[in-house]
Amino acid sequence: xxxxxxxxxxxxxxxxxxxxxxxxxxxxxxxxxxxxxxxxxxxxxxxxxxxxxxxxxxxxxxxxxxxxxxxxxxxxxxxxxxxxxxxxxxxxxxxxxxxxxxxxxxxxxxxxxxxxxxxxxxxxxxxxxxxxxxxxxxxxxxxxxxxxxxxxxxxxxxxxxxxxxxxxxxxxxxxxxxxxxxxxxxxxxxxxxxxxxxxxxxxxxxxxxxxxxxxxxxxxxxxxxxxxxxxxxxxxxxxxxxxxxxxxxxxxxxxxxxxxxxxxxxxxxxxxxxxxxxxxxxxxxxxxxxxxxxxxxxxxxxxxxxxxxxxxxxxxxxxxxxxxxxxxxxxxxxxxxxxxxxxxxxxxxxxxxxxxxxxxxxxxxxxxxxxxxxxxxxxxxxxxxxxxxxxxxxxxxxxxxxxxxxxxxxxxxxxxxxxx
Length: 420
Prior knowledge:
The protein is of the alpha/beta class. It has 15 helices and 21 strands. The strands form 7 sheets. Strands 4-19-10-3-9-7-8 form a 7-stranded mixed β-sheet, sandwiched between helices. The chain has a 4-stranded antiparallel β-sheet with strand order 13-14-16-15.
């Protein structure tokens, strides 16, 4: 069994109003980006994931919910803080600053309004490791971690070749793992995350570990397809190693994934900016698509959640009713209603929130989207239809079924409710 870096007699920590017991053995949480219910089950049914089958039958296996918008940044930070976006402040991958009028990526720590569990456990003396696929999450998830202490690792697979001991807590990862630096648009990027986590565990470098992958495969392939099954079979081989090290293992996802295309394979999109310009005139409304991040090739910045900023003298109710009636729109909500329903920070959400249905993505102006990277029919996320996520733990869990279950409860499960 891996020996934790530190094992003080410690009652645990309280962060963001939730108490967490100290890990009694290496504890790993994996966020499988875009892993809707069905992916794991299909691989298990095909006989390709025996270790995941074991967890499903002998441990804890439920369906939970992610936060809305069902995008990467708000959900990873909800998992990391144990709280919804109204607390941590990350409302999407991308937002509009009302004061400056500038649209910004929400990758910087200045947007974060709450400490992470990793920061709190690290400050209390725990060894903490956070490994992400894409570099966009590294700063947010690593906020407050001092890698010079020898008790923290925060590294992204995307830039693993640039890692240093002072900044990341590790160095020369491709050489250590015997793996080439993977392309950012590849399943290998997620495997690099798993391989890194495995090496850190074998070296006793973490009491608490968080591994966050990329949804490259899920954007490309539906559950049960050969590409998807191959990914989960690969994941299962790493699960086998973690189980052999007697880790407490929790698995969830940041969001689900659905097909957003017509039968002929063309994207099924409501072009909101074009609709609003036709109704209100140019310059009267601004559509922000919070799915936008530095990696849009596989989805063209098309997701099922959008927020709209309107000119001050606009009749918001009339615009809301018009958009709600559009084919493919699941709901249109004003700021107050959306923020109350989805626990969002009101100052980082527009006047209206628009949700696409299971089969429909939302766009800005059609001419502004580069869809040249879509080499398969569009699959995306962001709306209510992508809110269901798997929640698995390789131990029995004692927790009241009456409580609603979210992906951001995963650390509560693995630290507070495990029963051997």
